[in-house]
Amino acid sequence: MEEKCEGSKSVTVSSGFTKIVSIAEKSLRYCLIAILLFWSCMLMFVFILNWEGWFFGIRIAGLYAGIYLFTEGLTALLLAVSVIRFPKKRVISGTLSLIFFSFILLDSGVTRQTLHPGSTSIPELFVIFSLIPILYLISCIGKEYSGKKYP
To answer: HSE (CB half, 13 Å, CA atoms) of 145?
Structure first.
């Protein structure tokens, strides 16, 4: 599909869409890497200082908390590395990041309801952390299918 513009230039609509999706994918990719690294560093900091945490409203401390914090931090770090190292597998790494941050959102929501019964608010930071992988995944799928020709 082509659209005529001033100066008799022929502009394809799909190339404009591809450019927008490419820019969105690249910027969201950097945001996703940043929040994954931030989350990993934050959990490693807690792992070093204080082995204590919450798992779906249950307070854990000691060795179990250390294992949980280390595993969650390592998972975030491995996801960041997969986003960086495997750009051709961006849909897979985006899906895994979405699953990871959805787990974090669900865990924090259940913990908040357990600690403060009747609270109707949800953790805004974790909603943003879950929204970035969703947008990244949408942009990756858009980039994946924008270059394909359909009959």
So the answer is: 7
